[in-house]
Amino acid sequence: MAVESDLQIAGDILSVQHLLQPAGEHPATVAEFVGLARSIAANRAEWEHLVEYDATTRWYHRLRTGPGYEVWLLSWVPGQGSGRHDHGASSGVLTVLEGELTEHGPRGPLTLRAGAQRVFAPGYAHEVVNDALEGAVSLHVYFPGLTAMPMHGCSPAVSGAVPA
After folding, report:
1. How many angstroms separate the CA atoms of 120 and 91, rounded?
2. Residue among 55, 106, 97 at smallest CA distance from 72
3. Which pTM does this prediction carry?
4. 76 close to 130: Cβ distance less than 8 angstroms
5. Per-residue pLDDT, 128
6. Residues of the chain with pLDDT under 70
7. What single string gives the DSSP state of each residue in the chain?
């Protein structure tokens, strides 16, 4: 049985605005990684021209790497999902840039609209799906960089380190 982290039990760090900090040159705290994601999200010129939609598979692009982290840009056509997975030893910040995604986590479904952010600890299992009728774009910051993405409820052949 998975044990929830204090972060998951406490709720959403993003609702406590005074804890958020702008990202430094080399982000090192959860708050700084949240700040990094917000600054990238605000700079549409950095990512908007890169987005592609692929109806056959989820599209993703590594946007940036730094000491101990990486940033991924993903697009989701209606109906695409990640499958239930965790991120191995990585923590992360998921930010919805455009559209709407649904996160299915331990506490049930949560609708994430443009601007929404989710912070998760290592081992946190969820599924992300585009249940909407329009495409969606999301930004994912992993720290340390993503090396595994174990799938839950799938055959081992489906496991891989594809960001979600």
Report:
1. 6
2. 97
3. 0.80
4. yes
5. 96
6. 1-25, 154-164
7. -PPPPHHHHH--GGG-GGG-----SS--SHHHHHHHHHHHHH-HHHHGGG----SSS-EEEEEEEETTEEEEEEEE-TT-B--SB--TT-EEEEEEEESEEEEEETTEEEEEETT-EEEE-TT--BEEE--SSS-EEEEEEEESPP----BSSS-GGG------
